[in-house]
Design goal:
By secondary structure, the chain is an alpha+beta fold. Strand 3 and strand 4 form a beta hairpin. The radius of gyration is 24 Å and the shape is flat. The strands form 3 sheets. The protein has a 4-stranded mixed beta sheet with strand order 5-6-8-7, with helices on one face. It has a two-stranded antiparallel sheet with strand order 1-2. The protein has 10 helices and 8 strands. It has 3 domains: 42 residues, Pemi-like Protein 1, Chain: D (Ribbon), CATH 2.10.260; 67 residues, Ribosomal Protein S8, Chain: A, domain 1; 183 residues, Phosphate transport system protein phou homolog 2, domain 2 (Methane Monooxygenase Hydroxylase, Chain G, domain 1, Up-down Bundle).
């Protein structure tokens, strides 16, 4: 926190000098407007004027001596960091091109604008106007609810449907797209007062929503792998017990999301208590049969994500 002295201007006004780094981050120049608002605590909130869309941020990525996983991580990192134009060089085969297109397909609004024998150029056409992370969290939420329903339905059957397993994989890909977009907005906005103003949010809320999306994406992965592990179980008794635990996790998940949308800490507190009890049931399942170690660890992973998000609602008020 910086301390600054008041400077008297005329007979009715006072002024303070604004920090230079704040001015630069906000993209403000001499003569431009800023907004001053008094909140209920008597504090003054100074906000920058909404600046124009930032200039095109380009990155060139060379694919030579990099496997698919390395390229996927590098391109994802560039996307999250806010790069808007990708020039992917060093492509040697048709399969190389297909791999890059597959990676770019993980991002919303990224379009291929040029392609030749050795490179691909893609550009982001997503606009931050009227963007709200909550709307993307709702999309992730709806997808997770669908995965929960599929898993619970399949457990009741004697044999798992390969089509349903593939369906979950496809739903998870959609979840990843919205999670990457949430991460991109978070990285661009967390240290940018002008963008926070445009998004009609603040740093605490932005972080809270990103962290919530982070845990939701992990929860979806947990459900996806749980489906695969449960499919290998032949014991009817084991399936029945797992179904019972997943039903409770399903209910706890609904409660957690309800707490998030309502910003209700009392609901969140109840969810932290219920997930703790579910954790104890999962541990008891593992003690009954050590062969279920991987499955119980996976169920506990799902429980942990719900618990963590409930804690965020409980701890953070805005």
């Amino acid at each position: 926190m910086e301390q600054r002295k008041l400077i008297k201007l005329g007979n009715s006004s006072f002024a303070i000098a604004l920090p230079k780094d704040w001015i630069e981050k906000a993209g403000l120049k001499k003569g431009e407007s800023i907004f001053v608002q008094q909140n209920s605590n008597g504090e003054l909130i100074v906000s920058p004027s909404v600046s124009e869309q930032p200039n095109d941020k380009k990155i060139s990525i060379n694919t030579e001596n990099k496997n698919f996983e390395m390229l996927k991580r590098e391109i994802r990192a560039a996307y999250i960091k806010g790069y808007t134009s990708f020039e992917i060089k060093g492509l040697k085969t048709k399969q190389d091109k297909e791999n890059i297109k597959k990676i770019l397909n993980n991002f919303l609004s990224f379009e291929l604008i040029d392609s030749n024998e050795n490179e691909i150029i893609a550009k982001d056409f997503f606009s931050l106007e009227n963007t709200a992370l909550t709307s993307f969290i709702r999309r992730i939420d709806n997808n997770i609810r669908e995965i929960f329903e599929i898993v619970l339905e399949e457990i009741k059957k004697e044999k798992f449907s390969q089509a349903k397993l593939k369906n979950i994989e496809e739903i998870d890909e959609d979840i990843n797209k919205f999670y990457f977009l949430c991460s991109r907005i978070f990285m661009r906005g967390i240290d940018n007062p002008s963008l926070l103003t445009k998004l009609k949010t603040n740093g605490i809320k932005l972080f809270n929503e990103w962290w919530f999306a982070f845990n939701l994406e992990a929860l979806a992965d947990g459900l996806k792998y749980a489906m695969k592990l449960i499919a290998k179980q032949d014991s009817k008794k084991t399936r029945e017990k797992v179904y019972e635990i997943l039903e409770k996790l399903h209910k706890a998940y609904f409660g957690c999301m309800d707490a998030f949308y309502k910003n209700d800490s009392s609901i969140a507190l109840n969810i932290t208590e219920s997930t703790t009890k579910i954790r104890d049931e999962i541990q008891a399942l593992e003690k009954e049969d050590m062969k279920l170690c991987s499955l119980s660890s996976n169920l506990n992973y799902i429980q942990k994500q719900i618990y963590q998000n409930a804690k965020m609602v409980l701890y953070v008020k805005y």
